[in-house]
Amino acid sequence: MIEIQNVRKSFGSLEVLKGIDLTVEKGEVVTVIGGSGSGKSTLLTCINGLEPIDAGRIMVDGTEVHAKTTDLNKLRRKVGIVFQQWNAFPHLTVLENVMLAPRKVLGLSKDKAEEIAVKQLTHVGLGEKLSVYPTRMSGGQQQRMAIARALAMSPEYMLFDEVTSALDPQLVGEVLDTLRMLASEGTTMICVTHEMKFAREVSDRVAFFHKGVMAEIAPPEALFGAPKDPELQKFLAATH
Amino acid sequence: MFNTALTLSDLGFLAQGALMTLAVTAVSVAAGTVLGVIFGVVRNQLGAYWSAPLTFLLDVFRSVPLLIQLVLGNAFQSIAKLGWPPFTTSCVVLSLYTAAYCTEIVRGGIASVPPTTRRAARSLGMTWWQDMRYIVAPLATRVSLPSWIGLTLGVMKDSALVLWLGLIELLRASQVLVTRLQEPLLILMICGAIYFLISFPIARLGGYLEKRWSND
Chain B partners of A135 at a C-beta cutoff of 8 Å? Predict the structure, then answer.
């Protein structure tokens, strides 16, 4: 369970998160929508401790992420994240990209790490690309590789930060299909996305962020069908 | 037409000089690179403000002519009664000189690794050290290699200045022969050819590694 309690975060004088409360249960899929600069991506990077927070707290399975005593490297094994920019390691092949963390962080043997990596890459449809360098692949393929790379650590939670935003339109579908597959397998996910149709399909709950505040959170039928917050109404009108 | 007083033993003398050049270069580049990597990482970690004293010191080594550094270095070791032989003094000064340049190369290489790539590594649970070792080091090395090869070749030629401390390296050996035989053209051509023979494999090694690392 991920518990986000009254989290505040500023960059300089700009407050990007103004007291966020959100609890995500095991097996739940929560998507976060909202305009640019609404703080939704920042929240994800706070959840696995890549960004410090100014107030409040975030608990992952009872461990306080930003406590001084928390071993973040250990915590991050539990919380996988995939970014808008896929961030392939360009000097490693696709297989090596996925094997690296299981070998070095989890200390698995080469054979075991390779077995896991091949399994995950096959799962996201890259079983034929094992020995290719990522720069030789399309953005969609690199993004799916990044997903496999995160999944190879067998995380209990997956965070997706606008993973289709930097892709060419014709490549968005293949990545969303991968996310749909993960959602249907019961992966606990928080997805920040601009893909409304996708959010409507896969989510258990959808959260709308506006100017650092979670203005509304509800199951997709309610949030898209009968939005209450006036800003959400405007946002949905503009994105349809 | 081809009539020279140059003997086989003179060529041996030149070869000895070349070995001295190689030795001074090898020691200085090795030590300078190790120091340069350490300083480069430190500068990156500390940021511009906290590493200012180090930066200033390295700027001194980069801007004062090497000849002056060698002479001052030698004077310093003698005043401090360190009792260093010229070879040691030469290597120490050249190492620091190399380190000053190498620091900038390393710093630039590390800075060329996108922060987002490093963030991805850390998000997989890698420690700072694992990120440096498996992501930053290989990527930064690829970026830095051409400059580092250039530095090595430069230091090899600059090492000729150690003749001022009395070391008989390649250039000094050539000078001795020129003075004795009065055949400057021939001897300097041989000397130049030897410098080329030493440099060429280093330059080719750089080209080879660049090609090998280009993921093709």
Answer: 215
